[in-house]
Amino acid sequence: RGFESLSHRVSSKPRVAEDPEGLEGSKPPHYLGPMHGFMYILLCSNGSYYVGSTRDLERRVAQHQRGEGADHTRKYGPVELVYFEWFPRVDHAFYREKQVQGWSRKKKQALINGTPGLLPALAKAYRDLEDLNPGP
Asked: I want to staple 50 with a disulfide (CB 3.0 to 4.6 A). Which of 42, 78, 116, 118 is the partner?
């Protein structure tokens, strides 16, 4: 929807993901404006992903680690932060959270792994794939 965002795959050295909107350098990833927000993905101990949004990423991840977060992360902790995106407005982070929550595991993994080019193919419905629909 044209939201400004910066993405980070979390590893030993976080990196800025592809920047299709030309924002790289306009605001550093650590910029904290008064209304900013983050969409984040946690890897839970059972291998599932938890997607959330917050204004204070460090505090929220610590809450999840202490079992003070959502029921899912309380049940399947400890958790590991594997991906996040920064937004200048928290409502944009919330919108992105809801979008990513609806994605398949494979789409979330593509985002986490820094391969967003795979997302269009992973978004296709099975009914749309020719090799699964034999002709008459």
From this structure: 42
